[in-house]
Amino acid sequence: MYTFSICLLPLVLGLYFLQSKKKVNIIMIITGCVTAFLVFALKEFFTLSHRNIPLSFAPNFLYLFFREAFLPIVLLYAVFFLLSKDDLDFKLEAFFPLVTSFYVVFLPYIVITSPETKTAFEVLAKPVLFTSLLVSLSQGVSYIQNGLKGKKGLIAVGIILILVSFCIPAAAESFFLMDSPAIYVILLILFSVILTSLNLFIRILRK
Hints:
By secondary structure, this protein is mainly alpha-helical. The protein has 8 helices and no strands. It has helices at residues 3-19, 27-46, 57-83, 88-93, 95-112, 120-148, 153-177, 182-206.
């Protein structure tokens, strides 16, 4: 049941390293994975996993947005960015392997420990949404990196892409939890996949 959830991100991370010309240190992968183990260990020991799901979009969206995407990514990367003594280019290039390796462990954890009945959304759609999120965020960081080197307009593009990408998984799951029409969830998943595909295509053209 959980094979897809467990294997998708490791596969994507492996493909990234196979095609990447700039090999980011393996320490990034170790750091991301170890941090994820520590996070869910602390959650299991010090927090209650049960949650009563409200029949409202906004509370579900905010809970999922901050708990599963925004806070884990921002806090992890902010701590790395502040503690690392490497140059700015290395810090920006380290975003994808660091954060993706974190979710290699963290995403199966939140899927498997979810109190909701395991559905196609949990075991199939959610991994796709988070993979798309991480790829799009990486491209957003790349836009900002290029913007800092002179193409100022790309900074705004990168910020908008990051903000939009952060919202999609939480919005899709919130609609799913509220038993909204399935077309809402399907459209968000398709939009997420198309957005990611376009970003990958743009990245390939720029190389």
